[in-house]
Amino acid sequence: MNPTLTIFIILLPFAAFVINGLLSNKLPHKTAGWLAVIAIGISTILSWQTAVSYFLQSEPYIRQLVVNITWLRFTETLQVDMGILLDPISVMMLVVITTVSLMVFVYSLGYMQGEKGFVRYFAFLSLFSFSMLGLVVATNLFQMYMFWELVGVSSYLLIGYYYNKPEAVAAAKKAFIVTRFADFGFLVGILILSYYTGTFDFITITNPENPAIISMTGISFMGISVLTWAVVLIFMGGAGKSAMFPLHIWLPDAMEGPTPVSALIHAATMVVAGVFLVARMFPVVVFHAPAALDVVAFIGAFTLLFAAIIACTQTDIKRILAFSTMSQIGYMMLALGVSGYGHEGLGFTASMFHLFTHAFFKALLFLGAGSIIHALQANDIRQMGGLRKYQPVTHILFLIACLAIAGIPPFAGFFSKDEILTAALASHTVYFGIATLAAALTAFYMFRLYFLVFWNNERTYAHTPHESPAIMLIPMSVLAGGSVVAGFIPFGNFVTSDLKSLETHVHLNVAVISTAVALAGITIAWLFYKRKSEIPDTIAARLGGLYQTIYRKFYIDEIYLFITKRIIFNLVSQPLAWFDRHIIDGFMDLTATATNWISAELKEFQSGQLQKYAYIFLSGVILIVLVVLYTYS
Amino acid sequence: MIDQVPLSHVLSVSSLMFFIGAYGFLTRKNLVTMLIGVELMLNAVNINFVAFDRYLYPSGINGHFFALFIIAIAAAEAAVAIAIFINLYRNIRSIDVEEVDKMKY
Amino acid sequence: MGTSALIFYILSAVMILSAIAAVTARRILRAAVYLLFALGGTAAIYFMVDYYFLAAVQLIVYAGGIVVLIIFSILLTTHINEKLELPRWSKISATFSLTAVGFAITTYVLTAQSFTTGTGTFADATVGLIGERMLAYGEGGYVLPFEVISILLLAALVGAIVIAKRNPPAS
Questions:
Q1: Helices and strands of chain B, counted as H and E runs
Q2: Whose CA, among A94, A331, A358, B94, lies 20 to 30 Å from A22?
Q3: What's the complex ipTM?
């Protein structure tokens, strides 16, 4: 296959966005929806084809620039290109994004049916797919940054899809501002890096033997090398997008968007952009800025545990999944952080593997949640129960996803999580302990959710819940298939840190431990939640303040609010606002008023009063005559 | 007459007439009376041409032509002006110059 | 002071006074008649300097044409007994001072300038001579301005008809 065809993978969703966006009032819903689905469908086929032909090459894989257009030329060396870079991770991401996108698009046809902004929804969704695809194939930091922001914008637009709902608007704003704040660090990092290396190009920048990079390690700023600074700042952008602590606060609120959006953007694709970014910068970081990797590992581990604990207490089905997403991304970050290069690059492979499998089962979980919400019109799991009777297919598919995320063999999550645990064990016991504990918690909170929704008390519903239509179940089934078989892919043969194949196999000890803790978590959940029981409430009451703290998400939101509202608003913004309103605006108002006054006065000359014109004319003539007389006499 | 009246006197008369016309043009509100002011000014200019021609270049007759052309133009101007006045009067029932300000600003 | 000088000054006085009356009279028809006097005085001055043809044209076109036209329009647009209101005092004073300054400057220039009276015999401008020169295209010929004025008059004629003829918009 001609590799330049990959450009159509990106351009087709864009075309769908343009058409749906421009004709959003004209197109009938069906046409618009299927248009977007067909566009992303062709993209998916092309992506799979690209992946197959790419991975069929002999190893080691090469970084291929299949399209490269110079877009802005600043200096001889510093220029911004637009292009497509194919390497194992970008090809893998292409497959993940287009596949999940396609499933979500098809699912949305059913889920969003009859919504008012149906065409707008598909336009934004196509925009998102376009931006996300552009992001992963970016040839340079600058292109990546642009698409990075585009992704942020489409996320913002989709979270705020129900724009007449105040919570959705607030959530959209929050997501945008928090990620934007993180992206500031990203931008500064890009500028530092490009200032020293004189290029944005990934192939040059991530080459560990690049002399400019090596020289950057020698320049130190506040005791830390400039390269580390740059990389950490870049990773700050990644942490924002991937909802890592302490920039995670936007993700739970982002669940205000339509559920398929949460599945696509806030579970499978956009939130792993940060992981992708770290992986993209990996070769240079691992050699020259290991401290930055430690930061990544630490933040990943912390978020992993932190989010898993919170997820155990939440009652909103989508928020549980959101915290679960954060936790799983923590796994990926941790794996990258503990990874080495080449033969020790198990963490890298594991991280990418987990990203791959997670996309399937987390998207499936969200789509399942969407199917439940669609049937019940409610988000709170305390209002659910006994749904297995009403939604048998959703029940089975949801169970598969839960098993996959809990890491029960032979489902996909088991394999990827096993690799991560192995990598963590090789690095530090503490990391391994955290990861194992989090695995148990994952199993617990997922099955808590599962039992509460599908078993527990058999209640009667005002409207009998119904099974979702086939157009929603088919994409879910496809994802379920992925969740089952994705683990058997020999990922080490394809995606590695040094582009060479890496031998991976299941480590029995680790596998036994992880499966055991997962089963333990499931058992506890089964005991607590299979039937209506007093145990959870009793434990919650025992824990008292601690439970409240966890339930309130460790008051992080409140801390943010305190810092922003009390400190920044009152002490910084208010005086600045006063200054702006009274001094700067006052000055502007003054000039405006003065201009207004002068023009009002000048206007009088244009009064339409013929005699005034004549008077002025005659005065002018006399004045000129006087001047001439005075000068020439 | 040439011997007895200096040129500057004739010119003074014409210039006085000119400024009287200008005064009329600038103060009168009725368009027809403004037109009278304009006619006075044109006439004053005509006197000027004639006087210059007669006093300074008596052997030529070019002053005639200037004066004749001015008279012709004055006639054309008066005809058009009065047509405009009549049309204006039909439309706004007034030929007060201060009310004719539709084209201001 | 010779007779002709005396006549000139009397004529001038009449012209100036009637000009002043023409721009200040409160009855509009009288203003037109005062204008007639001023124009007639001018014609008399043309006669005095032996410009007979010009004087005739002045009388025919100005007195006979324009003044009649003005009187027509007065009759069409104003009430015969209507007295014009006086202009505002501020307007009068401002305009008066401006025109007074203008007149003072011209007078100053006129007195400061010494004119050299032309020599040579006075060429009597007969109608025939004027006609020949008017249509001559050689040196001293005025055929081009003549044609231009013809076109202008034609345009004015057509324009006047078109403008005056237009029906008032339906109210």
A1: 3, 0
A2: A94
A3: 0.91
